[in-house]
Amino acid sequence: MRLFAPLIALCLAAPIAHAQCGGPFPAFVDGLKSEAAAKGFDAATIDAFFRPVRQDPKVLRADRAQGVFQKPFIDFSRHLISQNRIDKGRAMARKYATTFDRIERDYGVSRGVLLAFWAFETDYGGFQGDFNTLNALTTLAHDCRRPQIFRPQIFAALELYKHGDFDPARTTGAWAGEIGMVQMLPRDILENGIDGDGDGHVRLKTSAPDALMSGAKMLSSLGWRAGEPWLQEVRVPDTLDWSLTGPGQTLSVAQWAQMGVRPREGKLAKDTLSASIILPQGRNGPAFIAYPNFQVYFEWNQSFTYVLTAAYFANRLEGARVYDARNPEPGLTGAQMKELQRRLKAKGYDVGKIDGILGAGTRTAAQAEQKRLGLPADAWPTTALLNRL
Q1: Exposed end of the chain (fewer CB within 10 Å): N or C?
Q2: Model pLDDT for residues 313-365, shown as the tens digit of each residue
Q3: Residue 155: its H or E element
Q4: Helices (H), strands (E): how many in the chain?
C-alpha cells in the first residue's frame, strides 16, 4: 500500500517569503515555523515538531569531508565489496525471498540492485547513521550551499511526524538526512513509501520489507525499466574509437557489437537497446556496457564511482565474476586532479567544484581535451594530459 500520496502537494505548496538560508539560527527556525503555518500545519504540531531542533556542526564537517569519493573505481570497489558483504547479501536474498519476488513482479527491479544499495547504504541495516535527522536537515537548509535541496525535506519530515512516522527528537540517520535501511529522504518516503509488512506504517528503520519495497518504488518512479539489465562487463577492441565512450554517449547494442565489443560472460542485451561503454580507468582498465537503467542510478546518487560500484555489485550478488582489472595507466593524485580541474575550468569547461574528484563534468572535459590534443580520448586523465594542458 502506498501511503501519503494525497499529501505531497501540501509540502510543495506556498511560496517562501522569508530568508532561504543563513542568519541567526533561531530566526531561521522561526521562518520555518511561519512557512509551516502557511502550508496549513496547526500551531501545536509545529511547536512540538520544532521544539527539539538544534544546529549540528558535525553535520557540516561531514558534508565537507567526503574524501572516499576521490578513490578510483578499482580501489573504491575493492574497499566497499567484501566476501562478507556478498555472503550476507545472498543470505538476505534467501531470507526475504517473498519480498524480492513481489518487488520483481510489481516493479521489475532485480533483487541484486536493491541488495547492493542495502549493503552500501547501511550494511544491510546494521548501521543506519546516528545523526538526528531533523537537526541534520535544518542545519543543511540553514547552510547556504544547497538550501533548495534540504529545506523542502523539513516540511516532508513534518508531514511524516503528523502521521506518527517521524520523531523529531529520536529519529536518526545519515548526516545528509536520509533515513532507514536504504537511506531515503523524507520527501522520498512521502512519495514512495510502501507498507511492505502490512502494519499500517512505513518503518524504513525497522522493517526490511518496508525499506525494500519503498526503495523499489522509488527506483520505478525515477524511470527504472522493468526487467531490463543495467550493467555488464565487456571486452573492448584496441581499435575502438575511445571518443565514443562514456556515460553521456550512447549507441545501439548492435552498433557496439559491430565495433567488436563482446560480453565477458553471457550475452549482450537485445540489439535495439541503447547503451554506453564505460571505462572507469581508461582503455587499459575494466570495461562495462551500461544500459538505460544505469542512468537511473544517478538519480539515487550522483557520484560516478559510487554508481558504477553499486551497479557492478548488483551483478556480483547475482552471480557475476569479479571484473578483470587489467592494467590501467596510473591516474592523478588529488592535488594533480585539482590542478587539472583548474586548467579545464580556465578553458571554459564546467567541471563543478574544484575538489579533486573525477566526476562526470571533469571526465567529459578531459575527454574533449584528449581528443583535441590527439591523445586517446578515453576520459581517464593522466599526467600526459595534465602536462599537455
Answers
A1: N
A2: 999 999 999 999 999 999 999 999 999 999 999 999 999 889 899 988 999 99
A3: helix 147-162
A4: 18, 7
Tell me the pLDDT band of 67, cut-offs 50, 70 and 90: low
Q: Measured between alpha carbons, how far is 41 from 260 in angstroms, rounded to an integer?
A: 61
Provide mean pLDDT across the span 82-95: 97
pLDDT at 9 over 60: no
Terminal Cα distance for the chain, rounded: 56
Gyration radius (Cα) of the chain, Å: 22
The beta strands (E) that lie in 28-137 are given as 131-132
Grid cell 544546529 in the structure block, residue: 55
For residue 274, the surrounding DSSP H or E stretch is strand 274-278
CA distances for 272 relative to 26, 254, 277, angstroms:
57, 7, 15
Q: How far apart are CA 8 and CA 191, in angstroms?
A: 7
Distance between CA 197 and CA 207 in Å, rounded? 7
- What is the residue whose three cell numbers read 527491479? 109
What is the distance between the alpha carbons of residues 346 and 359, in angstroms, rounded to a whole number?
Answer: 17
The single residue listed with the C-alpha cell 576521490 is 70
Residue 188's closest CA among 134, 238, 149, 147? 149
The domain limits of the chain are 231-239+250-317, 334-388
